[in-house]
Amino acid sequence: MTDVLAFPQLEIPNTIAAGPGPGNTDERVLARYAGAGLADHMHGDVLRGMVECKQMLREVMGTNNVHTFGVAGTGWSGLDTMFSAVMPGDKVVMFVNGTFSGIDGLTVRMKAASAEELAANSLDPQAKNVIIIDVPHGQSVTGEIVETALAQHKPKWAAMAHWETGSGRVNDIQGFSDACEKYGVMGLVDAVSSLGVGDFRIDDYPGVHGWASCPQKGICCLPLTYAPVSFSDQYIETLRASGTRTFCHHPILEARHWGIIDGKDVEKGTYHRTHSAYAVSAFHEALRICLQQTIAQRAADYTFHEAALKRAVEVMGCDVTSNMPSLVVLNLPEALAGREMELVQHCRAQNFGIWPTLSEPVQVRIGILNLLNEAAITDIVNRFASALRDLGAEVDQDSVDAVLKGHYDAAIAAE
Ligand SMILES: *Cc1c(COP(=O)(O)O)cnc(C)c1O
């Protein structure tokens, strides 16, 4: 028999989640998670909560798409649902400029590959109908790149990350949507790191027919809840015509539990799979917080505080190569080049949760998800400065303090 004493109760510390995600879950979300009663997934209040989540999500995403709902799990769960409409043999153009769009590319190659192509290299299939356009790490996908590729290949689908979290780059969603419209291509977008952080309405991009996000970045709802997705009527018609080989992540079937049946809102959902009352309750509160704060205000706050962090690390001699408002991706000062992993591990050992890049080149990533105040930014900056010093760099604290003070004083003066 196993000795249970060999497995004491699991304690997990609270860290400063200063990475690309997960972000800091709001206390109100955790309170709703722990406060919900145990009720099954067909209980009236759970079903009502899901219908309300669906309605709030349409507002958060800025859409009239009927097929807007949450997929249980993480970002990849939503993305798998979105890419489920891609069938073997479909022609797809993928724009890849970092780790996550790279994995989106792998997902699409797995779905679009023929049976022979999949069997030939099942974990990394090369599908001849999938054209991967590689954009170097640290650069954005531009409208011009998309336009050129779609004009040449005229695929059925095109896909891109809205914001590539691996390299911290914002891609040109307007250019992507315009080119998709122009060439009659259905655009699919990985909006995992932009939803709830950037100020955009998905209905402003009619070339994009599928969107997928995640719970734990801009929506600040880590306790494993829902990955938001939204699909145009054209996407749903295309999917209905081709079918797809999944029950669990089938966009039409999954929508039923959220009260979306035959393309229409109904009062109450019908069974698709078990949902957690805790998760529904937490997700509901996270969406209420988004709408109370407003997407526009959150976006303005991210831009403002990211600028403070960026200026402070630049004063320390770091070179910032990102342009994402929730994340700074940087090269260390010359003297510390090559010691990125050591620095990140040193910070993480103190529960200061910054990250390296997950694919080459090795850089450092510092994020500010739900850390939108002067005290939190100052704490991140000071911890990072002292970690640099621990590794032997010279950091002039007075200059760092002056930059932060200048940034925040200017904001007070402007009010
Ligand atoms: C974080 C992220 C993902 C993966 O999300 P998980 O929640 O880890 O499944 C995918 N795409 C992008 C752009 C991301 O930032």
Question: Could you please describe the fold and organization of this structure?
Answer:
With 415 residues, this protein is an alpha/beta fold. Helix content is 42%, strand content 14%. It contains 14 helices and 15 strands. The strands form four sheets. The protein has a seven-stranded mixed beta sheet with strand order 1-9-8-7-4-2-3, sandwiched between helices. The protein has a four-stranded antiparallel beta sheet with strand order 12-13-15-14, covered by helices on one side. The longest helix has 21 residues, at 295-315. It starts with 26 loop residues before the first helix and ends with a helix.
Brief account:
42% of the residues lie in helices and 14% in strands. The chain is of the alpha/beta class and 415 residues long.
